[in-house]
Structure formats: structure tokens, C-alpha cells
């Protein structure tokens, strides 16, 4: 059974005129950290990953019997059942309310379940099981859409994601397997700004790991629904890109030039995979200064020049960012194919330019 995103991806591939049969192998599981898909030995080689994932897991299960695990699992299941009853009751009383709004009021499904040795969410759990089942397949592309369950420990994702890609390529016996890396859509309920941090890592990995292309879904999210319903637009976008008829991915900032003249500071962001940047709706850049002042700068046509985004400021900024938040409301920068510009954040040090 193919996922909804996979279905629309295949539809777009078919509509592109590809004559060959298209086969898709689903190898995924919802609610998983990247650590679930990485070899235990690889996690153990990195001190930070070992401490955050392996050691935590082993400490949690140490000294427990199977009766203990079963008791903890039963208690967790009862919590989930109560949540589901409360959610169903609320939706029945408020039939016009969206699931996203209802979950924001009632609460989200309790997750994750308590650790146990046979739980698929344990570190390396699916690397040792599900991934092993496809290791002798031959694939010409891979799609990776994950990261939601690493937002509680987002600071480790810059190590997890490259290691995961290496693991899959090694397991599938193809060190240069092309990867389409899906950038997470917006979702408000991640802790702190961790959703934005995960997206920034996805952007960096797509630029630094060979044969990895970013496909941004930043404009496809729902504020309080971690599984957005707009599968068609996102899947069709992915399929068109995978067909190989235009860009290899969605646009991103590949270079920034900074200059100063008098008291003015000028920043020119060159956008890759773009010939003509345009505004679809009201859009802002956030600028943070060294004196802690924060400014929201509304963009207009004067800020855009072909594939460049231009910004002039009166003071040297500490940071310039675009859509760098869990659920950005002002996403309006697109290339000529209506692919969204990836969110980004650029920091500066305080010195004379």
C-alpha cells in the first residue's frame, strides 16, 4: 500500500510522460526518530548520539522484567484510549471544528510509548527489521520525509540526518543513491523553535551531502495538525521534480554577498533553482540586531531582482531569517515554477564590513 504522498507522486510521474513501469517500495513508519533507522554501531561511535539515544534507552529498560514492560504499555494504552474518547466527544459536540483545532484544544495523541526491547521506536529498531527487508532491492531514487519526532532533540539532527543517509546508501549497496529530502511543512506545536531548526538542518544537509536535493513542503502545513491533509499538492510537486524535467529540487539561498556604504548595509541573497523570484502574498524577513531589537521587514517588488533577494538596512544585523519559525504565516517567495523558497537563517558577527 502506497502513502498518499506516494500516490500523487506516482501520478505526477505518469503525467510527465514516463513510459517505463514505475515501482515504489514503501519503507517507513510514522512517529519515528532518525535514530530508529541507523545502525546501533554507528550511533555508538558518536559520543553525543550514544549518550542521547543509546544510553538513555538502556538506562530506561535496565532492571525491568517483561511484566514491567507490559504494565507500562497497558498504562500508556489506557491514556491513548482516554485521549481518543475525549477527542471524539469534542468533535461530536463541535461538528464544524477541524481536527487541527480540536487537537489544539483537547490535546495531541500521547507519544511516544514507553521503551521496551521489542518496540520499533527503540534506537536502531527499524534498521534491524524493516530496512533489512529491502536491502537487496535496486533503486534509482529515494525519498526521505521525516524529522517531526526529532524536534524534542533537534540539536542532534545535524548528526543524525547525514548518518541516516549514509546508513541507507550502505544498506542498499549504492553509495551515490540520489535522495529527495522533504523539508518539513509548518506545524505550530513543536517545542520552542525546533521545527525551524530541523528545516535548517535539512537545508544544510542538502547542500553538503552529495546527491541530496531538498524538496520543501513549507507551504503545505496546518497550524495544529502534524499530518497536513494537502497531500495532492505536495505529492504532485515531488513527482514533477523526480521526473527530472526541470529543477532537481526547490529553490534555496546558495550565496549571500554583503557590502556597506556609509551607514547603509546591503545584502544580496542569490537563489539557486530559480530564474525569477516572485511574491505570491504578503511576506516578511525577520531581522535581529545586536541591541536585541527585532524588525519585521515587509518585502515588495523592489527587493526582488531575477534570482536575487535584496535587502538594505541602516544597522548591521545579528541575524536575518525567512520563515524561520515552527509555523510561519508569511510564506510568499516562489520561483517561476511556483516552488517555495526554503526557509533560512543567516547570522553575522559584529565587526566592520
From TrEMBL:
Q: One of this protein's Pfam families, by short name?
A: SASA
| Coiled coil spans | 287-314
Note the InterPro entries from the entry. Answer: SASA, SGNH_hydro_sf, SIAE
Q: Which SUPFAM superfamilies match?
A: SGNH hydrolase
Q: Name one GO molecular function term.
A: sialate O-acetylesterase activity
Q: Which UniProt keywords apply?
A: Coiled coil, Hydrolase
Q: What biological-process GO terms show up in the record?
A: carbohydrate metabolic process
* Domain (Sialate O-acetylesterase): residue spans on this chain: 138-243
Domain of life per record: Bacteria
| Keyword Hydrolase set for record | yes
Please identify the protein, giving its name as recorded. Answer: Sialate O-acetylesterase domain-containing protein
Amino acid at each position: 500500500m502506497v502513502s498518499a504522498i506516494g500516490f500523487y507522486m506516482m501520478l505526477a510521474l505518469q503525467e510527465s510522460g514516463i513510459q517505463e513501469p514505475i515501482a515504489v517500495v514503501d519503507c517507513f513508519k510514522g512517529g519515528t526518530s532518525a535514530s530508529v533507522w541507523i545502525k546501533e554501531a554507528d550511533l555508538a561511535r558518536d559520543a553525543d548520539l550514544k549518550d542521547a539515544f543509546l544510553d538513555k534507552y538502556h538506562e530506561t529498560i535496565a532492571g525491568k522484567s517483561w511484566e514491567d514492560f507490559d504494565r507500562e504499555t497497558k498504562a500508556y494504552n489506557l491514556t491513548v484510549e482516554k485521549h481518543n474518547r475525549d477527542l471524539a466527544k469534542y468533535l461530536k459536540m463541535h461538528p464544524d471544528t477541524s481536527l487541527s483545532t480540536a487537537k489544539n484544544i483537547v490535546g495531541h495523541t500521547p507519544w511516544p510509548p514507553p521503551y521496551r526491547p521489542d518496540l520499533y521506536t527503540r534506537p536502531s529498531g527499524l534498521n534491524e527489521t524493516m530496512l533489512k527487508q529491502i536491502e537487496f532491492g535496486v533503486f534509482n531514487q529515494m525519498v526521505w520525509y521525516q524529522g517531526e519526532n526529532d524536534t524534542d532533540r533537534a540539536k542532534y539532527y545535524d548528526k543524525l540526518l547525514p548518518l541516516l543517509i549514509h546508513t541507507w546508501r550502505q544498506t542498499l549497496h549504492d553509495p551515490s543513491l540520489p535522495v529527495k529530502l522533504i523539508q518539513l511543512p509548518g506545524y505550530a506545536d513543536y517545542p520552542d523553535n525546533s521545527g525551524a531548526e530541523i528545516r535548517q538542518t535539512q537545508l544544510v544537509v542538502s547542500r553538503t551531502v552529495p546527491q541530496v536535493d531538498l524538496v520543501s513542503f513549507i507551504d503545505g502545513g496546518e497550524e495544529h495538525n502534524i499530518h497536513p491533509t494537502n497531500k495532492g499538492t505536495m505529492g504532485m510537486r515531488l513527482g514533477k521534480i523526480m521526473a527530472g524535467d526541470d529543477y532537481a529540487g526547490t529553490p534555496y539561498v546558495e550565496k549571500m554577498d554583503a557590502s556597506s556604504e556609509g551607514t547603509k548595509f546591503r545584502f544580496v541573497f542569490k537563489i539557486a533553482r530559480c530564474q525569477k523570484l516572485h511574491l505570491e502574498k504578503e511576506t516578511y524577513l525577520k531581522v535581529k540586531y545586536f541591541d536585541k531589537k527585532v524588525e519585521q521587514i515587509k518585502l515588495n517588488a523592489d527587493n526582488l531582482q531575477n534570482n536575487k533577494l535584496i535587502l538594505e538596512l541602516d544597522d548591521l544585523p545579528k541575524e536575518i531569517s525567512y520563515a524561520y519559525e515552527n509555523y510561519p504565516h508569511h510564506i510568499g517567495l516562489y520561483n517561476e515554477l511556483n516552488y517555495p523558497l526554503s526557509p533560512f537563517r543567516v547570522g553575522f558577527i559584529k565587526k566592520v564590513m
